[in-house]
Amino acid sequence: MRRWAIVGLLVAAGLAAWSFGGLRPAEAACAYSAASNSWPCRNASPAGSGAALPGDVVLGFRPSLGAGSDGPLSIQQITGGVTTVANQAALKALAPSTTYTSVDRAGYTTAGDGGGATYSYSSSACSLNSGAGDNGSQVQAQGGGCWLAKFGTSAPSPKVWGCAGNGSTNDATCMQAAVSWAVGGQISLGCSMYAVGSTITLDNIKLTGCSSGRNDDGFNSTSGFVGLTAGMTVLSVGNSSILQDFTIEGPSGSGTSGAAIATSTTSIDDRLEKLMIWNNCDGIELNGNTITVNLTNIYNFNGSGCAGIKVGNLGTNASTTDMRVTNGNIYGAGSAVGMMILDAGGLYLDGNDIGGAMLYGTEICPGTNQGVWWLFATNTVLGDTTTNNPLHIDTCAASASIRGLKFDGTWTANNTTGPGININNLDGGTEDGIWFIGHRQMGGGSSQTNVDGIDIGVTGTVVDVSFDGSHVCGGSTSGAGTGIYFGTGAGGFAVRGTQINQNCGGEGGTLAAAIGLNSNANVTIVGNDLCGNTKPVSGTPTSNSVVEANRCLNSTTESVASATSIALLDPNMVWNVTGTTTVENITGWWLGMTPIYFVTPTGAVTFSTGGTSPNAICNSVTSSGANSLVSAFYVPAVGCWAMQLVH
User: Model-level pTM?
Assistant: First the structure.
């Protein structure tokens, strides 16, 4: 039983006694100890032993006074080998003693301020900061020793190192001390916001917030960091760290530099989870290898060159490998980009929602010696109602490369000034292999004028782009837009099993054509639903192309006036040849387009030899009159059309 009473303590030669708590003199035994200049008084303990034990009360005198002094300077109770001091200043002033095994510091500045910890004494100097300690895990003791914190299995708070955690006091120095101690361990932020004016560097640490104070989205908004300096990076993360369940708020106005979290090219195996990030230029800058970002929301970034997540800004040659970004929400505005991918090998995106009136939703634009290879994007909104392109793919340097990108079950929705997907090669790098499976591109409505759904190869060379089982819906108010437009730089592409319609998915507007071509080679357009548009296909491919089994294309009839040379400018299988002029050349053809059927509605037309290869006619045929039918098969080996009268 603890005793806080000392009764009948006689000082030297019979001076007056003190009475504490009504105990009788016989209940306490005290004896002066010259070694400690104090009177250890113990309950039912042998008097005069001179050493304080658990349960004792110690009266300490002024150093200049001895056993005959007129009163104690301090009173301490020794309980279980532990003494208590109020704060850091008291701990530093405490004279080390072998009479207690531990010291409880009740707070850092004041008792109960969250900075409490238990310490044991070491006669050796502190190992940190040339003996000065770090004021948390190590506190310099009187006489050159060190008070060593005993945290046990619990994760300490930064307040142990003196952080205020009030969201306004600059806690950078104490926070850095805390996380530096925690290498290989854990720091708990608790339900407090820590303001920092300089970057905090982390490595091999678990840094967690508190479980209460969540918003409607399940994210914690009462625990984390507040950046104080414009353009600063708040957290710099090294290897094998876990950041979980807190908020990072940037300085007022996101600016055009700095990040909430940045990893380096040597970072590996970090996990960032259940974070809420807002008001920074870049939310997260991902560099290094095998880093996961999961269940993280990033908001309110709008500066030029800024991004919610920026992948590989420090990497080259697709060395930023095996990153995973899953189940996040990214919403920005202004000239910012939702997700900017500059260098990545094997980047995996799944279940993300990227939206807001930003320049681009997702931008893939590797720079000098950078590459984006083998990307996997699944069930992700790549961009929604952005001011330019929800998905923008381009090279930003001649030495850049893009290859093997796969988008599966993804979504784009364009707004007013650009197509939903824009794939170009402006700076002349390498782009080869971009595949969409089950993608949905939505556009149209009163806000769009002359806007295509998807543009590919308008500038530069882009090869091997394919759409399978996808939907491209909506058109422009002027009717001048195209569902998928392939520029002169696009080749080796395929559109298979895809619906392209100005009204599908509840969208509106008008499409001038479902697919637009510009004499592209190695084209496959097979099994698509192209109905409901002004034209199914506008323009023609060239050699080694296949266009077949498309709804509303093979059944569509166009007209061309008879002439010495007729040009088939769209890939329709049936043409009305008006007039009666003899035809000697048929242009606009491509290998794989045959057979072609010619109807002569106004009278007999002769298809005659005498033209120029490869557009010549192999054999002469004359239609039998009005509405007669003639078929044409192209023979590549001899470079001419074989004609046959059907009826």
Answer: 0.82
